[in-house]
């Protein structure tokens, strides 16, 4: 059985390499993923949330097609953090990932990778969203937008860490509005897709068509709006688009990893527009909500999982929903392979190593996401060997916060942030400590609008307030 599964995974990788090309396969999949077929799922292990999110956004269709070609069936694809992978990437590969992210705004990349899915194809719905104290306000705001064609929440801006349900709410709004008011003109895109389509329209001289498409929408939904950071022309275009929709009394909904004021290299005009509506944060789910999420996922998988096992998973994995789902899948697969019923003792055995290794990595991912969003760069930049003023400062701040707020060692932090030497982490922490103790205490970094400076203590305070503890 294991040999057959291994052969199927090899077949999936071969098909995937052909579909995306050897170069992109080497950059994003080789050494960055570990695929395992468990039960009726293909589990794709990734080194961190950034890589997982990028693969899910850009290569989801290629993965599904490769699975179908290699196995003859449509396995569900799920992305999970694999702690053993985060130290396996080499500098050249990390630099290539950063370059790939930077090139993703070119028209050729857009034509190959970014096709705007019609709202009818969005799979997440509000009636499957598990509600708790951490997300109740965001859910109520989403329901208000659905119920009222001209809600007072314009824009509705939802922010929170990775894997907490922002995309679920956005897709749920689109699906619910489409069902209640089927003639509503709806556009659902990511900030990256909006940027790519704008760049392409400029390139081919079809800016009027681009503007007509977006500005005539009754409901414009933008996920990962922080992608507009550092893109001055795109920000200006989006501001005009937003104003046109708002003036016409129509609705804009957005989601981001950070509060508008915490998104680096975002124009003051856009920040002011974003905070003029309803800004609501989704927090990590509490224990009871995590239990309900796990029970719902178990029902979806048609698996009978006893409450003690559910509660054990919920107690030990509390950062985000994706990690909960990954742990549940691991327990189900473990039970299937060992041909035993799921129990508390079995769940402990199946997840012992996973829980010990995963918990600090998730927290470091939160730190990295907050820092890179603030400086208007990507995690790929931090992982690379680039040493521009902005990237070096962001990397040092992330390492300092990781050392302060996690139990990870210097070598573990270095491996997570692109296989950096532990000495690099030590020097980064000393650098920030020195800035906090001695004058001058301001730090400087570059933005498209020029250099920006801020007191280091103020900067760290802003970032720490954005982290979930």
Nutshell version of this structure?
With 469 residues, the protein is of the alpha/beta class.
Walk me through what this model shows.
This protein has 469 residues and is α/β, with parallel strands linked by helices. Helix content is 58%, strand content 12%. It is built from 21 helices and ten strands. The chain has helices at residues 2-20, 22-28, 49-58, 60-71, 91-103, 107-113, 136-147, 166-180, 191-204, 207-215, 232-247, 268-274, 287-300, 307-316, 321-338, 344-375, 379-383, 389-405, 410-416, 422-437, 456-466; strands spanning 34-38, 41-46, 76-81, 156-160, 186-190, 219-223, 251-256, 278-282, 442-447, 450-455. Strands 5-6-7-4-8 form a five-stranded parallel beta sheet, sandwiched between helices. Strands 1-2-3 form a three-stranded mixed beta sheet, sandwiched between helices. Helix 9 (191-204) packs antiparallel against helix 10 (207-215), helix 14 packs parallel to helix 16 (344-375) and helix 19 packs across helix 20 (422-437).
How do the strands and helices of this protein lay out in sequence?
Layout: H1 2-20, H2 22-28, E1 34-38, E2 41-46, H3 49-58, H4 60-71, E3 76-81, H5 91-103, H6 107-113, H7 136-147, E4 156-160, H8 166-180, E5 186-190, H9 191-204, H10 207-215, E6 219-223, H11 232-247, E7 251-256, H12 268-274, E8 278-282, H13 287-300, H14 307-316, H15 321-338, H16 344-375, H17 379-383, H18 389-405, H19 410-416, H20 422-437, E9 442-447, E10 450-455, H21 456-466
Parallel strand pairs: 2-3, 4-7, 4-8, 5-6, 6-7
Antiparallel strand pairs: 1-2, 9-10
Helix pairs in contact: 1-2, 1-4, 7-8, 9-10, 13-14, 13-15, 14-16, 15-16, 16-18, 18-20, 19-20
């Amino acid at each position: 059985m294991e040999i057959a599964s291994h052969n199927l995974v090899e077949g999936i990788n071969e098909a995937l390499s052909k579909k995306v090309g050897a170069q992109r396969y080497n950059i994003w999949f080789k050494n960055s993923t570990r695929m395992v077929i468990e039960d009726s799922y293909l589990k794709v292990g990734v080194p961190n949330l950034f890589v997982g999110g990028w693969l899910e956004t850009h290569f989801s269709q290629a993965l599904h097609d490769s699975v179908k070609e290699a196995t003859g069936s449509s396995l569900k694809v799920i992305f999970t953090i694999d702690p053993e992978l985060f130290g396996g990437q080499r500098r050249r590969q990390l630099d290539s990932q950063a370059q790939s992210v930077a090139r993703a705004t070119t028209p050729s990349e857009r034509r190959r990778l970014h096709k705007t899915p019609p709202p009818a194809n969005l799979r997440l719905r509000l009636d499957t969203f598990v509600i708790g104290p951490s997300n109740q306000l965001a859910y109520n705001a989403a329901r208000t937008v659905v119920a009222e064609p001209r809600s007072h929440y314009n824009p509705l801006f939802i922010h929170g860490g990775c894997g907490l349900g922002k995309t679920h709410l956005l897709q749920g709004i689109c699906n619910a509005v489409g069902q209640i008011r089927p003639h509503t003109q709806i556009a659902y895109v990511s900030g990256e897709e909006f940027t790519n389509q704008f760049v392409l329209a400029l390139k081919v001289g079809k800016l009027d068509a681009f503007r007509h498409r977006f500005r005539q929408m009754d409901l414009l939904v933008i996920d990962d709006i922080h992608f507009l950071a550092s893109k001055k022309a795109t920000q200006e275009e989006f501001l005009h688009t937003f104003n046109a929709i708002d003036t016409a009394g129509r609705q804009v909904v957005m989601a981001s990893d950070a509060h508008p004021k915490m998104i680096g290299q975002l124009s003051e005009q856009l920040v002011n527009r974003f905070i003029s509506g309803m800004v609501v944060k989704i927090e990590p789910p509490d224990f009871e909500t995590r239990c309900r999420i796990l029970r719902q996922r178990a029902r979806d998988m048609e698996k009978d999982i006893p409450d003690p096992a559910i509660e054990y998973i919920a107690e030990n994995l509390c950062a985000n929903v994706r990690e909960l789902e990954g742990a549940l899948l691991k327990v189900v697969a473990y039970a299937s392979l060992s041909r035993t019923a799921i129990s508390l003792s079995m769940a402990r055995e199946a997840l012992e190593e996973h829980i010990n290794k995963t918990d600090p990595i998730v927290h470091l991912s939160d730190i990295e996401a907050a820092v890179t969003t603030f400086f208007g760069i990507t995690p790929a930049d931090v992982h690379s060997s680039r040493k521009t003023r902005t990237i070096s400062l962001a990397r040092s701040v992330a390492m300092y916060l990781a050392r302060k707020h996690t139990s990870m060692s210097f070598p573990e932090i270095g491996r997570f942030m692109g296989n950096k030497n532990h000495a690099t982490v030590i020097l980064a922490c000393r650098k920030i400590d020195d800035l906090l103790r001695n004058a001058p205490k301001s730090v400087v970094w570059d933005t498209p609008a020029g250099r920006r400076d801020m007191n280091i203590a103020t900067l760290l305070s802003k970032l720490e307030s954005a982290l979930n503890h």
